[in-house]
Specification:
By secondary structure, this protein is α/β, with parallel strands linked by helices. The protein has two domains: 8-330, Rossmann fold (3-Layer(aba) Sandwich); 338-431, GMP Synthetase, Chain A, domain 3. Helix content is 30%, strand content 24%. It is built from twelve helices and 20 strands. Helix 5 (107-123) crosses helix 6 and helix 10 (342-349) packs across helix 12. It is globular, with a radius of gyration of 22 Å. It binds adenosine-5'-diphosphate (ADP) and zinc ion.
Amino acid sequence: MEIRYWNKEIETADREKLRQIQLQRLKSIIASALKTPFYSRRLPSVGIHSPDDIKSLDDLRKIPFTTKDDLRQNYPKGLLSVDTSEVVRIHTSSGTTGVPTVIYLSAKDLDAATDIMARSIYATGTDKTDILQNMMSYGLFTGGLCMHYGAERVGLMVIPAAGGNTKRQIQLMKDFRTTVLHITPSYLLHVHSKLAEYSVAVSDLALKKAFVGAEPHSENTRRKIEDLFDIDAYNSYGLSEMNGPGVAFECVYKTDLHLWEDAYIVEIINPKTGELVPDGKEGEVILTNLIRHAMPLMRYRTRDLAFLHKESCPCKRTHRRLSRILGRTDDMLIINGVNIFPSQIEEVIMKIPEVGTNYQICVEKQGALDRLIVKVELYSKIFMGEAKQIDNLKAKIADELKASITLKPAVELHEPGVLPVFEGKAVRVVDSRPKL
Ligand code: ADP
Ligand code: ZN
């Protein structure tokens, strides 16, 4: 059988070779883009009338950014380059920040995206002997189906469990000796908090790994997951606009996420000026999809903030590594004039050993001022402890948060099971301030 999940030549290609592949694929994407109502207007306006107008990769910069609003305004078919008879699947984004957007895949696009997904899975040392329980929702969201197809391509046994029904999930893990989970980090932590209730110990399970993604999480959350389950957790980044999961994935070394540069061109920009920033500097991730022709998307503003590593990876793959997502430009909170990303708060609280597996960030108006309340669940044996210890812990959490975000929040400590639980992407922030 042809191996389509490990391509040494491409994965370890030198940078020049990768650039050649990118240039050739970019030209071919331009040809498809010129067939869409949207790009057939936009590209000629910047002097691009045919693929031959792209002479080098630098010419990519002539193309204006494509934004989520462009996708919304051209909904449903403005970015479609083919007749719908050529389309074999659609997906939409989750709609975390508003109306969801749609993507279209032809049979060839789906095949190419599946190869990249399979490559990501294999890079973590997962192979056909593994059993994957896919706990992302199946349906319009890309997380379920796209991972499913990739895992089948590697030859794993896939349990398409989808999200929710924690009791059944735990039963499936036990009965089928699941070795790998695909899941959001918030839901995985919740699953752990339920094990005891169903009289299951981590040692009753055969788990070795988890692919965690779809939502921002900190290094401390990864560690917590790894410690609680005694597994390796690999960060998985993707977005529906770029075909879903598998855009960037950690390899066995867990040194942040290899972004597959034969399939996607990555640029990091200053979100305010649109200027490129050098490797190592944080900015907004801009992606050009090189493997989807039914709905081409170039220089897409993801609104995700990250940086590219400069150093190479011990695995010898040459595709650059993206840092974990530090936040989304649109989830930044401005609290009494201070800019705060929810991920900064998570990083602090998940480092504190007494803190359990769930938290929530609330912002409300009190008179003229904003009030930040961080609600944190503790492990039950800690919550049952002495009142004085709990008070000390509360003060410690508030102080550590102040040291990081410069603003001292009110901290509320809760017993496990009190705060809302999410089976897919967690909604961590409840901002009840009146909209301006
Ligand atoms: P939506 O933008 O509606 O959430 P998607 O379902 O396409 O739509 O989700 C993609 C987004 O999810 C990414 O742009 C990013 O903000 C977030 N995301 C995905 N994977 C990760 C990850 N590993 N770490 C942090 N954020 C992630
Ligand atoms: Zn690597």
